[in-house]
Specification:
By secondary structure, the chain is an alpha+beta fold. It is built from 7 helices and 12 strands.
Length: 290
Amino acid sequence: MKKSILFLVSASVTLGIIGTVTPGVPVQASARYYWVKSVNRDNLPYHATSHQSAYIYNPTHTRKLHNLKNYPNTTWYVSKSILMRSSYTRKKGVYYYVTNGAKTISGIVWRGYLTAGVNSKTPATTNPTGNGTSNTAILKQQFKEFLAMPQQTAENQVIQKVKQDLAGTYTFDDNLMNYASYTTHYAENNPTISDPDWTTINAKFGITSQNSKHTGADTEDFDSAWFGSVKYDPATTENSYINAFAKSLEKGISALSSEYSDYLKVGFGINLGQSHVYTRSAATYIIVEK
């Protein structure tokens, strides 16, 4: 197997119920949205997912305050995750309470408009807590949260990030995605089988050496030294562990697809093993098919 390279980077986590839960806080009876519950966050850095209109509201969601498209270089720091319910449709949604680094702008914004990580165009500075905490300290905290993230959650976030970044460039085949997932988790799910029958397994998925090519990475452990490398490559990794694994897979997909340009279907998988105290293991698998 070819060995794909995973970047040394820092950690950044999307909404995970980590922190102190605050009971539901209903706003005025005439308001369109109600707070169901909130979770305190540690001023984790996020940035806008696009340059399209996306509004920051006041905490009761009754007034537009700012438009994210007007702040393309801003890093937003999330201090709360808020579950809100519409008083009209009764549907629920998650919002982030955000503040810019200068602490001049704040409000709530739907989480779908933000992605984890420091904006690569934001100059390195202190976070908005006002206590002089450095970005390095924030990244250390992010590493701890990444270690605490459930395996399936972490893997799903990486997979969705790759699909989002490469949408329209490659065709991700459901069968190949399932095969790649099965492959990367085989040893974990079959601990008593030391010599798997890959001929039978491949036949189950319709995989043959004539119609497919693959590459993968052996399992490696990644530790807290990652956060120290974030400042050297923020434009690539977006200061995020999730994004770093995604970028590694994207490079692998691009390389394999370029080598076999007539293999148009793509599948990939990642196994982010349950973490130990200071490390987390990872393995990847990429496959292309005619």
